[in-house]
Amino acid sequence: MIKRKNELKVVTQKEFLGGKGTLQLTHFLEREDAYDSGRLFALSVLTPGSSIGYHTHTGDGETYFILKGRALVNDDGEEAVLEAGDVLITKNGSSHSIENIGDTDLEYIALILFDK
Fold first, then answer.
1. Domain of life, per the record (predicted)?
2. In sequence order, what are the residues at sequence separation of 6 or more whose Cβ sits closer than 8 angstroms to the Cβ of residue 35?
3. Rounded Cα–Cα distance for residues 62 and 87 (Å)
4. Strand stretches in 1-116, DSSP E
5. CA distances (Å), 100 to each of 9, 47, 76, in order?
6. Which among 38, 52, 56, 59 would be 20 to 30 A from 115, CA to CA?
7. Is residue 70 within 8 Å of residue 83, measured between CB atoms?
8. Using one digit for the tens of pLDDT, what is the confidence trace for 9-55?
9. Distance between CA atoms of 39 and 107, rounded to whole angstroms?
């Protein structure tokens, strides 16, 4: 199956999970295409100053791969700055948040897989 970029589902959310500003998700896979292994595989874009609020993963884990920009992440209570090429892995039962602290859009791949 080939999906052209104009066929991908794009969702824009404001103040996602108690965060600030705007998050845009471009979904590479729909849930039914993920073979029950996960619920999100997408390009995430946070505009400058935008964030996803601190939240806990239950029954799944999430990985961020930073493509562009600067992110302030909270990884189970520890803050760190991530840049292009860095990865954040949040396992089942752990918590995290992410904020764009740069002057340009923060772009990263987000993957959420179920903990089976």
1. Bacteria
2. none
3. 11
4. 10-14, 22-27, 38-46, 51-56, 60-68, 70-75, 78-83, 87-90, 95-100, 106-114
5. 23, 7, 18
6. 52
7. yes
8. 999 999 999 999 999 999 999 888 888 899 999 999 999 999 999 99
9. 19
Residue given tokens 């390009």 in the structure block: 43
Q: Three-state secondary structure along 40-69? A: EEEEEEECCCCEEEEEECCCEEEEEEEEEC
Distance between CA atoms of residues 44 and 72, nearest Å: 15
Write out the two tokens for 43. 């390009």
Residue in this structure with the two tokens 């073979």, named with its chain if needed:
35
Residues 10, 108, 23: CA angle, nearest 5 degrees: 45
pTM of the model: 0.94
